[in-house]
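tool=predict chain=A
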Amino acid sequence: QVQFVESGGGLVQPGGSLRLSCAPSGSIFGFSIYGMGWYRQTPGTQRELVARITSGDFSVHFADSVKGRFTISRDNATKTVYLQMNSLKPEDTAVYFCNTAPIPRGDYWGKGTLVTVSS
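tool=predict ok
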């Protein structure tokens, strides 16, 4: 069972930065044709898509809550997706996941990586 594996989370002070990475645990055929995204979830809330990057022209889209602070990129050669998070706020605290986007594949969900923004 292939899943995405996220890394790079941790504790950071408000205003700080983190870079998250995500790669599949095994072989995913056709990774380069998938749009990819980063999602986040806090207890008691729905998982939300915060950033996505398309497969073709690598165009990017962001939720209003992170626009101007987060960037997303991908490396199809290594099947890795990145999320650079700057100017972090306490409300960015969440577990972050990556998956296909805008429609996530249920069988690809990993365990996520916890980001905590606190002083």
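The longest strand covers residues 18-24. The mean pLDDT is 96.
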